[in-house]
Amino acid sequence: GKLSASVVHEINNPIAGILNLLKLIQRIMDEGSVGEKETEQFKQYIHLMDTETRRISRIVSNLLAFSRQSKVTVGHVNLNRIIEKTLFLNANLLKINNIKVKKTLDPDLPDVMGSEDQFQQVLMNIISNAAEAMEGPGGALKISTRHSLSNNSVVVKVQDSGVGISSENQKKLFEPFFTTKKKGKGVGLGLSVVYGIIEAYGGAIQVDSEVGEGTTFSVEIPLNQ
Ligand code: ADP
Ligand code: MG
Questions:
Q1: Cβ contacts of 177-185, under 8 Å, gap ≥ 24
Q2: What is the pTM of this model?
Q3: Strand, coil or helix: what is 135?
Q4: How far apart, in whole angstroms, are the C-alpha atoms of residue 125 and residue 114?
Q5: Whose CA is nearest to atom 11 of ligand 1?
Q6: Pocket of ligand 1 (CB under 6 A)
Q7: Which of 24, 59, 132, 197 has its CA 20 to 30 A from that of 2?
Q8: Residue 217 Cα: closest atom of ligand 1
Q9: Per-residue b/e over 85-119, b at no fewer than 16 CB within 10 Å?
């Protein structure tokens, strides 16, 4: 309920903004000839509409990934392989941001049962956040997997040496639309999607972070489902 209320709000705002700009452009055009000054204005409006449309598009694609949950194909998934794939997909982003990757993957990691797409979504969101947290100065990304015999689960840890998260923000991290990123960059759905997927598997996610030091996300997926 909370999610759909905020989705309506978050999508309605940019749509209202775009409509206003369109009306404004129409009025200016109705008033007469369009000169240099008006053209400059239009360029600005178009840029704004572009940003806002991209924002809606990002929100919608995140939500689509989330709602796929009900009709997913389920099978054996090796999380080491998903990590390799996600790192490959992010290779360019990691390279241009000068981020060193260190993997410690358990070679005997048992498969989890579930949807490959969903696990990839989880890792993609966590890894891209880590990369974004180290944007600029670069840093180290450490990824490990292990089989917890005591909990009969698989544990994935993603550690970055980025900006870190204040304890106040740590409380809001998984809320839909919580973001500290610039408008047009973050929409704040990544971790809420992650949370929803992990919860659906009876798993758990934990965050450990220190401002200026870095952040570690631990994801635990139970093996007996
Ligand atoms: P978005 O990335 O669109 O902002 P997310 O739900 O993925 O939305 O993340 C929400 C917020 O959590 C981010 O804006 C950021 O403030 C914080 N965050 C998430 N992961 C990290 C990280 N690894 N390091 C620092 N901050 C993080
Ligand atoms: Mg994100």
A1: 177/6, 177/10, 181/132, 183/51, 183/55, 184/51, 184/54, 184/55
A2: 0.81
A3: coil
A4: 18
A5: 179
A6: 125, 129-130, 133, 160, 162-165, 169, 173, 178-181, 186-192, 215
A7: 132
A8: 23
A9: ebbeebeeebeebebeeeeebeeebeebebbbbbb
